[in-house]
Specification:
This protein is mostly helical and 305 residues long. It is built from 15 helices and no strands. The longest helix has 34 residues. The termini are far apart.
C-alpha cells in the first residue's frame, strides 16, 4: 500500500491561532513594559508651559528641548560625571568579575579542602553585614579611600549572591571529568581555570557582568558617602544634586526675587524626566550586548545547591 509518508506529530507545536494569541499577549506585555519609559522620553521633550496647562500627553501641543539645555548648561560638569560613571562601571565590572569568578571557582572544586568554610563565609554575609557606620569607618579610615575612585569600586566589588550563582554555574556546566583530564595532562588549577572553565562559562560570566554593570551604573549612595571632590562625582550623584538644587530654589522662591526669576526660567518636571533619560540611556544600550548569554546564564545559575 502506497501513500504519503506520515509526518510525526510534534506535541510541543501549538496550533496557529493559539500561537498568534500567545504572541499577541507577549507583545502586549512587552509594550506595557516599555511604555512607561517611552512616556518619560516624550515628557522630557514637552514644553514646560504646555505640560502645566494640558498635563501629561503622548503627543503634546508643543515640543521643547529646554529641559536638556538646562541640564547641559552645567558646562563640562555633566560630561565629567559621565566619564567618572563610565570609568567606575568598566573598572568595577572587571574587578568584580575577576574576584567573583575566582572565589566561585575555588568553592566549586571538590578537591578544595576549605570550600565548605568559604561557602559559609560568603553565605553568612547574605544574612548579616557590618552596617553602615563600620563600613564607612573601614573605607575612609582603615583603607583611606575618601575622595578616591576606588571608594566607588571596591564596596560593590564582591557580592555573595553572585558568587553562589556562578559557583552553581561551574558545578552544573563544567564536567569534572574534563578538568580531571586536563589535570592528568599536567595542567594546574590556573591553567584549568583560564583555558577550560572560563571559555565554558561565558553565559554565567555575562549574567554576572550585566548585574555588576547595572549595579555600578545606578549607584549614587557611595558617592554621597565618600566623595566630596566635584571632579569625582558620578552621573547619578550629580543628577541628585541638580534635583536637590531645584528643590532648594523652589522652597526658597518666596524669599528672594533672584530665586523667583530663576524659578520662572526653570523647566521643573521636564528636567526630572530628562534626568531619568540621561541616567538610564547607556544602561539600555548596553543590555543587547549581554542578552545573548543572559537568559542561559540566569536559568542555569538559578539553581542553588
Amino acid at each position: 500500500m502506497s501513500g504519503r509518508p506520515v509526518k510525526p506529530r510534534d506535541f510541543h507545536q501549538l496550533p496557529l491561532w493559539w500561537n498568534i494569541i500567545f504572541n499577541c499577549i507577549a507583545g502586549g506585555f512587552a509594550l506595557l513594559c516599555i511604555l512607561p519609559f517611552l512616556f518619560v522620553v516624550l515628557i522630557s521633550f514637552t514644553d514646560e508651559g504646555v505640560l502645566a496647562r494640558d498635563g501629561y500627553q503622548f503627543i503634546p501641543a508643543k515640543w521643547s528641548t529646554l529641559a536638556y539645555q538646562y541640564i547641559f548648561d552645567s558646562g563640562d560638569t555633566l560630561l565629567r560625571a559621565y566619564g567618572v560613571s563610565l570609568t567606575v562601571t568598566l573598572t568595577g565590572t572587571l574587578v568584580s568579575l575577576l574576584l567573583i569568578s575566582l572565589y566561585a571557582y575555588a568553592i566549586s572544586r571538590k578537591s578544595f579542602k576549605y570550600r565548605h568554610f568559604f561557602t559559609f563565609f560568603a553565605f553568612f554575609t547574605m544574612l548579616f553585614n557590618g552596617g553602615l557606620v563600620p563600613t564607612y569607618m573601614i573605607v575612609t579610615q582603615l583603607l583611606g579611600l575618601k575622595d578616591s575612585i576606588w571608594a566607588l569600586v571596591l564596596p560593590l566589588a564582591v557580592n555573595a549572591f553572585y558568587i553562589m550563582i556562578l559557583r552553581t554555574f561551574y558545578i552544573t556546566s563544567v564536567p569534572d571529568a574534563l578538568m580531571e583530564s586536563a589535570k592528568i595532562d599536567g595542567a594546574g588549577e590556573f591553567r584549568i581555570f583560564l583555558s577550560i572553565v572560563l571559555p565554558l562559562s561565558l553565559p554565567g560570566l555575562a549574567t554576572i557582568g550585566l548585574f555588576s554593570t547595572l549595579g555600578y551604573w545606578n549607584d549614587w549612595f557611595n558617592a554621597l558617602l565618600y566623595i566630596d571632590n566635584p571632579d569625582l562625582v558620578p552621573l547619578q550623584s550629580l543628577l541628585m544634586r541638580i534635583e536637590t538644587s531645584m528643590q532648594f530654589i523652589l522652597q526658597n522662591s518666596q524669599n528672594s526675587s533672584l530665586s523667583l526669576e530663576a524659578l520662572r526660567s526653570m523647566p521643573q518636571d521636564t528636567s526630572r524626566m530628562a534626568m531619568v533619560v540621561l541616567a538610564t540611556g547607556p544602561a539600555i544600550f548596553a543590555y543587547p550586548f549581554f542578552q545573548r548569554y543572559f537568559i542561559q546564564g540566569l536559568t542555569v545559575g538559578a539553581v542553588k545547591e
